[in-house]
Amino acid sequence: MKNHEDRLIAQITDRIIVEKSNRPFLVGIDGIDCAGKTTLADELASALKHRSVNTLKASIDGFHQSRDLRYARGEFSPEGYYHDSFDYELVKDVLLNPLKNWTASTEVRTSSFDFKTDSATDRADSLATATEDTVLVFDGVFLFRKELVNYWDLKVFVDITFDTSLKRALKRDLELLGKEEVIVEKYQRRYFPGQRLYLDTCKPMELADLIIENNGATRILS
After folding, report:
1. Global pTM exceeds 0.85
2. Of 56, 62, 24, nearest to 41 (Cα)?
3. Measured between alpha carbons, how far is 158 from 147 in angstroms, rounded to an integer?
4. Is the pLDDT assigned to residue 81 strictly greater than 80?
5. Domains in the chain, ordered, with CATH?
6. 134: which of 85, 101, 129, 130 fits an S-S bond (Cβ 3.0–4.6 Å)?
7. In 65-190, which ranges are continuous DSSP H helix?
C-alpha cells in the first residue's frame, strides 16, 4: 500500500515539475472533511522539497473567520459553514495574489488565524519570501468556489464518501468536540449539508485536473 501511495505522490510531483515555469505554481487540494487532503498535501510538499523545489505548505484552516462570524447563522447552519467559515479576501491578499503577481522580493503569509484559540496569529514562521521556482501546496475545503478556483495551476480533488468521512471524524475530532454524539450531530446537521451545498453549487469534481479516490486504496481516477 505504501509503495502504491509513494508512486501516486511521485506521479503528481513529476507533473508539477513538468508544468511549472519561472513563476510560482499553485496547487489546490480540495475535498470534503476528513478526505485526506492534509496528508496528501504534506506528502506532496515533502516530495517536492526532496526534489529541491522551493515549496510552501498552507491550508485554508489558517484563514478561518472568528467564531462569532462562523456561527452567526447558528451552530448547525449549513449555509453558515459554507459561506462564513473562511476569510477568502485575506487569503488572497496575503498569499494568493502576491504569488500570482510575483516579483523577486515577494513576501507572503501562509496563515493568519488559529481557530482553536479563536485569535489572529502573527507568527514569524508563517512569513516566507517566494522565489521564481516556488510551489504552493494548499489544502482545504471549498477551494474550487468562485473566489479561489482561478488561482490554482493544478486542481486536485480527494474523493471519499460521507460514510468514510464520518468514520474518520469520529477518530480525528474526538479531542476537539468531546463526544461521539456531538461529532455525529455536527457533521450530519452542519458539515455534510454544507458540503452538499458546495458540491451542488460549484461541482468541484468537474473542475478538478486530478481526482483521487481515497476511501481505502488511494488511486487516481482521472
Report:
1. yes
2. 56
3. 20
4. yes
5. 2-220 (3.40.50.300)
6. 130
7. 67-70, 78-84, 88-91, 97-100, 162-172, 174-177, 180-186
